[in-house]
Every structure is written in C-alpha cells, then in structure tokens.
Amino acid sequence: MRLALFGGSFDPPHHGHLAIATAAADEFALDSVFFAPAGRQPLKLDGTVTSFEDRLAMVKLACLEDARFAASALDAPRSDGAPNYTVETLSGLARRMPAATLFNLVGADSFLGLPRWHEPERLLELAEWIVVSRPGFPIQDLSSLGLDVHQQSRVHLLDTVQDDTAATDLRERLEAGDPCVDLIAPGVLNYIQSHHLYR
Ligand SMILES: Nc1ncnc2c1ncn2[C@@H]1O[C@H](COP(=O)(O)OP(=O)(O)OP(=O)(O)O)[C@@H](O)[C@H]1O
Ligand SMILES: O=C(O)c1ccc[n+]([C@@H]2O[C@H](COP(=O)([O-])O)[C@@H](O)[C@H]2O)c1
C-alpha cells in the first residue's frame, strides 16, 4: 500500500490541489491520497479560516473527482486546543498502517517553510516527501534548505505541474461574485453556494 498524506487549509479545495494530487498519484503509483484539512495549522494559528466541518465537507466532495482520493479527519481540531503537528499525524498513520509506504505531499511553497515546522528531521524520517512545483516557488530554491544527502534521498521533486490556482485568490473572487467554475469542482461550488461561504 502506497499512501500519501496531503494536508492543507483547503479553504476551499481547488484545481491546484487536485492537479498536484493527480500528478503525484500517477508518478509515484499511489494507491491513496488522504486529503486532511488542518484543524489548527501550527504556523497559521492567528489566521481566520472557514470551519473545519465545512472544509472537510468540501474536501469530501472534491475527492469524488478521483477514486484514489479520500478525505481524512486525521487533522481534526484537538480537544486540548493544541495545533495539529504533521509529525504526530504521520506517526499515527505509521502506527496504524505499519505495512504502508508513507509519503507526505506538499507544494514547493510549503516545503520551503520546513525548517519552521515541528521536528523537521523526524518528519523526513517518517515519510518520503513529494514536493510539487508551484509558480513563484522554483524547485531549485529547495537547495537553500541545506538538507544532507540522506535527507535529500527522502525528497522527490515533481515539476510537471505548473498550476497557479491559489485559495487566497479564489476567496477574493468568490466574494466578488465570480463563481470560479473552471477552478473549483462542481460539487464544491454547489456546497459553497448553498452554505453561503465566502460572501
Ligand atoms: N496551485 C498549487 N500548486 C502547487 N501546490 C499547491 C497549489 N495549491 C496548493 N498547493 C499545496 O497544497 C497544500 C495545501 O495548500 P492550501 O490548502 O494552503 O492552499 P493554498 O492555495 O496554498 O491556500 P492559501 O492561498 O489560502 O494559502 C500546500 O502544500 C500547498 O503548497
Ligand atoms: O507540523 C508543523 O509544524 C506544520 C507546519 C506548517 C504546516 N504544516 C502542515 O502542512 C500542511 C500544508 O500547510 P499549508 O498551510 O502550507 O498549506 C498542513 O497540513 C499543515 O498543517 C505543519
């Protein structure tokens, strides 16, 4: 079983998320990609986000686009209010699925922030990483992270996707009344409209 954790705000899930998950699943023969909305992103504790329940519901709808995709509540808000550290999510997955080959899927912008994540060295041991290019974040910049040779062997770069969709832009466009039909899955758009999100 080859399984990727794909964490994010998913506020809302969009074409860029589906494009990188599809490319990663194709290239690395993944059986499953777990889309896990972050309850409390450790580096964005002050940011306002749409409720976890709405983001999980939208992710479930987005995941209908590919049989390899599944929505996951692994990063649901914790009862003690603590942030959702990916190191804990991945170690939980490794315990529960000891036979699985684990990957962590991220865009290049997220990966460039790795030194600020909780326990970066352990994160690179717990899973292989798939880092996908994103316009404005050249994959060559990853050399600036100073990973040693072993750590580099845990990181796979995928530069076949160049998708400039960003949730921040979409939220602004939705607020302005643009339905963004080409960039958001139809089921997600229906959910946004019927729940009056991003108004
Ligand atoms: N267009 C894209 N190309 C490559 N990676 C992406 C793209 N959009 C999102 N990602 C990656 O998906 C993961 C989750 O992203 P997130 O849900 O925060 O979306 P976002 O579009 O970056 O949101 P925001 O604009 O609110 O920061 C991150 O690892 C991010 O790098
Ligand atoms: O564990 C950490 O310290 C950590 C720090 C920053 C981001 N993350 C996770 O990385 C994923 C992508 O986050 P983002 O905000 O860059 O899209 C999401 O699941 C976050 O919870 C995790």
TrEMBL record:
Catalyzes the reversible adenylation of nicotinate mononucleotide (NaMN) to nicotinic acid adenine dinucleotide (NaAD). Belongs to the NadD family. This is Probable nicotinate-nucleotide adenylyltransferase. It comes from Tunturiibacter lichenicola. Its EC number is 2.7.7.18. It catalyses: nicotinate beta-D-ribonucleotide + ATP + H(+) = deamido-NAD(+) + diphosphate. Residues 5-149 form the Cytidyltransferase-like domain. One of its GO terms (biological process) is NAD+ biosynthetic process. Pathway: Cofactor biosynthesis; NAD(+) biosynthesis; deamido-NAD(+) from nicotinate D-ribonucleotide: step 1/1. GO terms for molecular function: ATP binding; nicotinate-nucleotide adenylyltransferase activity. The keyword Heme does not apply. It is an enzyme of class 2 (transferase). The lineage of its organism: Bacteria, Pseudomonadati, Acidobacteriota, Terriglobia, Terriglobales. CDD domains: NMNAT (cd02165). Keywords: ATP-binding, NAD, Nucleotide-binding, Nucleotidyltransferase, Pyridine nucleotide biosynthesis, Transferase. Pfam families: CTP_transf_like.
